[in-house]
Amino acid sequence: MYGAEVPAYHTLVEVSSEVNRGVVAADGDAERLGSLDRVTAERHGAIRVGNAAELAQVADLFAAFGMFGVGYYDLREAASPVPVVSTAFRPIEPEELARNPFRVFTSMLAVADRRFFSDDLAHRVTRFLDARELFDPALIATARRIAAHGACPSADARDFVAAAVSAFALSRDPIDRGWYDELSAVSAVAADIAGVRSTHINHLTPRVLDIDALQQQMTARGITMIDHIQGPPRTDGPQVLLRQTSFRALAEPRRFREPDGSVVDGTLRVRFGEVEQRGVALTPLGRERYDAAMAGPDPAAEWDAHFPTTDAELAASGLAYYHGGDPARPVVYEDFLPASAAGIFRSNLDGDSATAEGADHTDYSRDWMAATIGHHIHDPYHLYEKAASS
C-alpha cells in the first residue's frame, strides 16, 4: 500500500536489499546483529495522531499484533523542536522481534503546549480532533478481543489485517486550504496531523547493514537524500544505537478546498523515505558517553575519546549490552533517538516555526501517556537488561 502511494519507497527497499546482500557476502560477521532474512524484512513505520483518545485506539490496535508501547520521546525538547510526544509500538521479547521485526513510531500532537498553540487555536484544534473518527469502532473492538484472547482464527486474522491496513491508507478527500495553512504556520507536522480528517503512514523504514553505502547508491540513482546521516558517526569500532537517513519528501498530489468552496489540485511535501542502520544497545553509562560525544562540534573526531574500538572493551567497560556478557553476541538497539527523529522530521520540511517564549506547563509525561492510553509504556533499559541476562 505504501509503495503504491510513495513509489520511491520501492527503490529504497530494492537498494537496501542489494546493500544487505553485499555486506553479508563480504563480511562473515555481518549477521551478528541479525540474520539477513530478518534485517531485510525489518521495517519501522511512523504515524501521527491528534489526541489521547486516538493514541489509546492505536495502542489497542497494535496490542492485537503483540506490539506494545516502548520508550517515551518528547520531540518538543529536541534541538529542532516538533510539537509532539511519542512512543513506539513493538514486540518486547527477542523471539517475538525475530518473528515480527516491526515497529510503529507513533506521535501525538501536544495541543495543550502554549509555546506552540494559542488558546484560540488550541480550542479549535481540539474541536476538530474530537469531531473526527480515525478508526472504525468495530476494528478497535476486534483488536481488543484478539489482544484479550491472544489469538484468532486465520480467516478472521486476514480480514482484521486488511481492515487495519486500510485505516492507514492516504485519504483523497479534499483538504481545507485555509485550515491547513493556519496550522502550517505553527508547524508542518501539526498541519499533517490536525489539518486532515484521517491518518496515514508517514514513512515506512527498511533496515540496512551499511547506511553509508545506501546513501551513496540512492544518490547515484538520482534520489535526493537529506544532507547528513542522523545519529552517531561512522566509526571503525562497533556501530552503536541507530543511524538514519532518508530521501527528501516528495511533492504528492492532493486536492484542496479553497475558501470559496472550489476544489483544486495541488501538492504537499510531508512524506519521506527513511532507512536505518541498527547497532548495539548502550547502557545508561554508554548513553552518557554518547551524549558527551555528540555534544561536540565534530562527534567523529571525538568518538574515540569516549568509546573503545572493540566489542570486548565495550562489554568490559559496561557501556553496551551483550547476551550473557559475550562480546560476540550484541543486543541490538531496537528503539529510537529523539534528536535523530526530530532531525529527520525537520530536514524533510521546507521550514518550521520555533517554539514561543515561555515555560512548558503541560504534563505530557511517560506516566501521563501510560495512564491515558491504558497500557504500560515499557522502559527500554529494562528490556535490554533482560535480554542481556539471556
UniProtKB/TrEMBL annotation:
Its EC number is 1.13.11.93. Its cofactor is Fe(2+). It is an enzyme of class 1 (oxidoreductase). One of its GO terms (molecular function) is dioxygenase activity. Pfam families: HGLS. The keyword Hydrolase does not apply. Keywords: Dioxygenase, Iron, Oxidoreductase. Belongs to the 2-oxoadipate dioxygenase/decarboxylase family. This is 2-oxoadipate dioxygenase/decarboxylase.
